[in-house]
Amino acid sequence: MCAKRRVDPEGLLPLTPVALNILLALADEERHGYGIGVEVRERTGGEMRLGPGTLYGSLKRMVDGGLVEESEGHAGGEADDGRGGYDAGRRRYYRLTGFGGRVLAAELARLEDVVRTAQAKGFLPPPRRGVSSPGEV
User: How far apart are CA 41 and CA 17, in angstroms?
Assistant: First the structure.
C-alpha cells in the first residue's frame, strides 16, 4: 500500500463488509483470529461467518496496509473461547492501529451520511426517540 493511502483514510473507502467487520471486532480490544471470527459471527447473528482463508487473507492485507498489527496478546488471557486452550501458544493476536482507527471512523461517518440521505429521501424511517447515534451520549 502506498504511503499516500496511509495518510488519507478516505482513500481506502468504501471498505468491504469483511474488512469493516474485522475492524469493528478489533475496535474495543485486541483478539486472536478465532476470536475475531467468533465476535463477527455473534454480532451479525450468524449472518457473516469468516472462513479461515477469508479471515487470515484479510488480516494479512490489513497488516500490510497498516490498519491492523500483530500484538503479544492479552496480558491476562482471554475468556474461554470454547476451544480448550488449543494452540494457545501459536495464536496470533491483532489490534487496530491508529491509522486503522481513522479508517474505521471515516467509513462509519460515510455510512452515517448514506443513512441520513436515505432518511431524508423517505426511504428509511428517522431514528427512534431515545435511541442515540453511535457518537452521542
Answer: 13
Architecture of domain 3-120: Orthogonal Bundle (1.10)
**Strands 31-32, 68-71: parallel, antiparallel or unpaired by DSSP?**
unpaired
Query: Nearest to residue 67, comparing CAs of 19, 25, 21?
Result: 19
Question: Rounded to whole angstroms, how far apart are CA atoms 32 and 86?
Answer: 12
Give the model confidence (pLDDT) of 40-63 as tens digits. 999 999 999 999 999 999 999 999
CA distance 94 to 63: 9
Cα dihedral 21→23→24→28 (10° resolution): 150
Domain ranges of the chain: 3-120
Q: Which of 22, 27, 9, 123 is nearest to 63 (CA)?
A: 22
Amino acid at 67: L
Phi-psi region of 29 (alpha: psi -120 to 50; beta: other; left: phi over 0): beta
